Amino acid sequence: MWIFIVKRTGVMALTALCLTFLVFFLTNLQPNLEKLAKTQGTMRMSDEAVDRWLEQRGYKQPLLVRYGEWLGVSPGFLLVKDNGKTLGRCVKPGADHIPNYCGVLQGDMGWSTVFKDHVSSIVSKRLGLTGWLMLFVMLVMVPMALIIGVLAGMREGSRTDRSLSTFAIITTATPEYVSGVVFVVVFASSAVGLRWFKGSSASAMDDITIANFTLPVITMAFYGMGYIARMTRASMAEVMTAQYIRTARLKGVSFTNIVLKHALRNALIAPFTVIMLQIPWLLTGVVIVETLFNYKGFGWLLVQAASNNDIDLLLACSMVAVFVVLVTQLISDIGYVFLNPRIRIS
User: Is the pLDDT assigned to residue 200 strictly greater than 60?
Assistant: First the structure.
């Protein structure tokens, strides 16, 4: 098992390195750098002024050198101007000491040009807000999806199976921006009259209540539960036709005991991987929901970073997303090995 974990961790580190370099390359293309210079300076800057601005901040260095600086494995860029003023990546306003290395490995993700703050503090705050949203969505989505999938797969082809399968397909086929608008119109606007919840979740950033947090939670849970339910239903239907289930029936074991003691555990092996993969989907899928309900979490931050060409912030958001995807995949693989004895023995 430990050899398996070490191999997976090595592959995960290599994958993270490749993906972060790809994102770094795309965000540091010349048009993006020119846009950054004009945004921080003036839109009427000449080409010579843009080149001077980029050179003074180290953007004219080779790509691999700047990527090493961002990671924290290469010394930070320094430039001493004619007036004695020092510029560089590791130069912090008001600091007495200039460190040689100041990258991700040192806990420094850079400076946000839009929010005028350290990227690490911004990302941690917004990621915490999205973490609460993801937690409540998982608590609602996973049990409901498993119940629907198990009930549908217990009696394949029955009326219950067809009804629940149709419902699961509808939820998966309905995008969040459609279901979210429908929920707001029905449950939060005066058009229908059911003003049970609030159409905006801005107040949930300070105090989470049922009124301001229900609609974004059920919007995301409604979209995600269909996929898990369909996978559970297919796995349950396959298990119910297995030879040991038929043997248990012939021995006179009750249908309830067959489902709970024999079929359910084996049927949940495949959905476990799907459930774990919902975590990175939730992290990146909150973009639409958080924008729709004005909940300024990680998804809202990602939109702001991309729209305002905030390179360091966009790199940090991408790195967090890559890290979450790889870690959840590792946990999924380890859990799958524990749940499936055939893989563990092999």
Answer: yes
pLDDT more than 90, % of the chain = 17
CB 108 within 8 A of CB 123: no
DSSP 297: S
Where does residue 116 fall: left (phi above 0), alpha (psi -120 to 50 degrees), or beta otherwise? left
Q: What are the CA-CA distances from residue 165 to residues 22, 122, 152, 156, 161 (Å)? A: 40, 42, 7, 10, 6
Quick: pLDDT tens for 16-48: 899 899 989 998 888 888 888 888 777 788 888
pTM: 0.83
Find, among 296, 127, 275, 279, the residue nearest to 216 by Cα: 296
DSSP states of 187-216 = HTSTTTS---S-S--GGGGT---HHHHHHH
Domain boundaries, given as residue ranges, for the chain: 119-345
Name the architecture of domain 119-345: Orthogonal Bundle (1.10)
